[in-house]
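Many introductory courses stop at the sequence. We go one step further.
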Amino acid sequence: MILFDFGGVLAEEGFRNGLHTIARINGLQPEFFAQALRDGDESGRKEQVRGKDSQVAFIDFSGGRRWAGISFLLNIFTLLFLTFKDLWIERKSGLNIIIDNTLKQVYFTGVEALRVITLISLALGAVVIIESGTQLTRFGGGGLAAPILIMVIIRELGPLLTAFVVIGRSGTAITTELGNMVVAHEIEAIEVMGINPIYFIVVPRIIGVTVAVTVLSVYFNLVAMVGGLTISTWITTTKFSVFLHNLTTSLTLTDLSVSLLKSLIFGLVISLVCSYNGLSVRFSSTEVPQAATRGVVNSLLSCFIINCVITLFFYL
């Protein structure tokens, strides 16, 4: 199938005639392309180029600026539905490939981010104890340092900062990779070969990122606790055993459950949003950086909103 990059300005009449010829050769509708070029209907062109039966074509609830937020949510939930649907329907197809790609995604997102996560968590645990411990000891409230550490890190900053690191490293990589695959027509080639792109490309990334974010968040909390415990023995008069006792008695099952829940949802949202923005690239390679930027911004906003909703639900 002969395809063109429509990123430039189509101004010459000869090119338009050639476009109609190409459309007829590929069994497409020349009239539709002419109308699309006049009206700037990018969503219509996307459907024709990728085909009406394309799995990716279903992820396109286009709307104006007024309905941009609703369209974005519809697209994300559509991708989520297709992911679980294809995961169930084609669960026996190419299972070894899916497992291998998922493990590679977990390694890239999780293992290769351990160094950054370790440094950030140690620094955060130390800073929280330094800021709170030095002030509380003046008023005889050194025993409140442990509850503050739990409130700040385990409930809020642990899952959030882990999500931010993953967005910066893996989220941008996923969006860029999928966007370049769309521009190079690799998605179309995969579909022509009868391979489901959602199942073999998107599913491993969603599972891998979700698992990696959850494990990294638990690791972040543990390392931050260790950093806080170590610093507390240096700057406060509270003994290590007393601080550890206060920490274990202040930590509740609800705190752990909320932290895990946030991590799971953050991982799922990051992978879905970044995958969607990568697949939303249409015609030109210049759209890939823009898609990566949208993926980062949308992921950050989504994580902040979800974090506020979960916190209000459990602690209000």
